[in-house]
Amino acid sequence: MTRTPASKFYCFKWYEYDANFFDSSIFRGISNRVHCHPPITLFSDTSVFILKKSCYILYFQSNFIARGCSETCKIWPCGLTCSYKHRNGGNNQTFFHSSAHSWHLQCRYADSSCNGLDVEFRALPRKVLWDLPRFVQIVEVGPRDGLQNEKSIVPTSVKIELIHKLVASGLSVVEATSFVSPKWVPQLADAKDVLEVIRHVPDVRFPVLTPNLRGFEAAVAAGAKEVAVFASASESFSKSNINCTIKESLARYRDVITSAKKHGIRIRGYVSCVVGCPVEGAIHPSKVAYVAKELYDMGCSEISLGDTIGVGTPGTDFVALCFQHVISWYHYLSLPFKTNFEASDDVSLFLRALQSKSINMLAQCMCEKGEHLLISDHIICSFNCWTFFNATILATLPTYVIGTFTLLAILSVSGKVLAMLEAVLSFVPVDKLAVHFHDTYGQALANILVSLQMGINIVDSSVSGLGGCPYAKGATGNVATEDVVYMLHGLGIETNVNLNKLMDAGDYISNRLGRPSGSKTTTALHKLTT
Ligand SMILES: CC(C)(COP(=O)([O-])OP(=O)([O-])OC[C@H]1O[C@@H](n2cnc3c(N)ncnc32)[C@H](O)[C@@H]1OP(=O)([O-])[O-])[C@@H](O)C(=O)NCCC(=O)NCCSC(=O)C[C@@](C)(O)CC(=O)[O-]
């Protein structure tokens, strides 16, 4: 299986089947079914395919599917009607499918009426879950993120016992506490006492939060071997959480990181509000990419992307899909770029980026020029994007209109996890990224799954779903570690965590806090055993 990272197309050969496959009843069954649907002419969401002597499938992200065979190899832009020559029959036939959900329809349809499609069904999991990691590193944040929001002070001994229980379940990274101002977070005023006891536990990493040099020095004095700095992609949240602008926070963290490097201390970097902010609403991916890049360039060994208020949803939206289509059209038609968009040089630059590369470069362009581009927002107001959903019209529109449309599409992707990840991945290697989802809207597991599909294999979570940020109004707890482990094990992904022991830890802290566990897995399994 090969992957073309530059364009974010995924291409893989249909390697189970050789050319004989196309003569088989399976293929004929599918193709007959497909022909029952009207051929598509426009926007078949993400279906794009390459055909050679054997069959290749090429698709955007997790969507597909179209297939066929031909003697020639050609990449078709999304949504074009495609004719191909069947190697035996020689008839030209239209073979694209027509809608975003075509894949599901196709399979179900085939199941009810075609023989021999079992093979097709057995291949399903591989198609859907083809790129998941084998191992996921869980970063347990319960003792810090989970407890920091608790109103009544949890005794230090309880915090220490909780950490021991979490470690006993197999968790090897446990964020233990914060060396922040006790005036700001009174619950964690005992950071030194907690760390001094647990730091002797072998083979476990205990990162602690440090908001400034003062916190860093206190943490090192207490025996910290790993610290975490926490910036925000939202200016408003930065002010309410750490009382400074994003720029000021990055300057502070530069000092912390410089000092940490001297001490040989590992640094984790957080970016908060990566999809939404309680004050500013949707956060543009370019802002997240900018902060993540800064932290990474400074020397953070891992960047954790936090959906602080849990508003993110996994998917891209229809407008964003259209954005992808626009790019395809540009590539396919090699449209000339009349940079007659006189509004600003930045827009011209942006259009050139659009012409030359993929969404990655656009994200980069947005990151560097984002401020100016956003100023150009008014330009897009006069356009109604729905007018442009027809690809034929798109192809004939003056370049600047398409550019405008694209701006609109980009602006509309805010609040979506995939778009955010894609922007960040332009700057930070995937193995240096972690995700940190609060579960306010019940989207955390879905967001984790798409993050895994994007190649990320470090996931933050909190035992019993404890947590919430004292400075993020309305935010509830992190996704429960028990639920994450249950899902990962269900997917066949290793975590080295024993779910029963983890639930013990969850029960322990829930009892101490006097409320039921926030983990659905724990609740369900307890019901079974009582
Ligand atoms: C950054 C500050 C300190 C600025 O706070 P400030 O008031 O602007 O700073 P200051 O320098 O004026 O200090 C105020 C007082 O705190 C003291 N102080 C100053 N620094 C420290 C320190 N390190 N340790 C102990 N004490 C400290 C300092 O000495 C002074 O004491 P006073 O002179 O008034 O007696 C403050 O805003 C703060 O501590 N904020 C932390 C807030 C916090 O912990 N939020 C939750 C964590 S972030 C989060 O949850 C998000 C995350 C990471 O989980 C990811 C996600 O979900 O998105």
List descriptors:
530 residues; alpha/beta; eight-stranded parallel beta sheet; four-stranded antiparallel beta sheet; 22 helices; 16 strands; 44% helix; disordered N terminus; binds 3-hydroxy-3-methylglutaryl-coenzyme A
The gist of it:
The chain has helices at 25-36, 102-113, 118-122, 124-128, 142-146, 156-168, 191-198, 213-221, 235-242, 246-263, 285-298, 318-333, 345-356, 359-375, 377-381, 391-396, 399-411, 417-425, 444-453, 481-490, 499-513, 520-529, and strands spanning 2-4, 9-13, 47-48, 56-60, 83-85, 92-94, 137-140, 177-178, 208-209, 226-232, 266-272, 276-277, 281-282, 302-307, 433-437, 458-461. It is an alpha/beta fold and 530 residues long.
Describe the overall structure.
The chain is an alpha/beta fold. It contains 22 helices and 16 strands. It has an eight-stranded parallel beta sheet. Residues about 1-120, about 315-350 and about 355-415 have low confidence and may be disordered. The site of 3-hydroxy-3-methylglutaryl-coenzyme A (HMG) has 26 residues, from helix 8, helix 9 and strand 11. It catalyses: (3S)-3-hydroxy-3-methylglutaryl-CoA = acetoacetate + acetyl-CoA. Pfam families: HMGL-like. Pathway: Metabolic intermediate metabolism; (S)-3-hydroxy-3-methylglutaryl-CoA degradation; acetoacetate from (S)-3-hydroxy-3-methylglutaryl-CoA: step 1/1. It is an enzyme of class 4 (lyase).
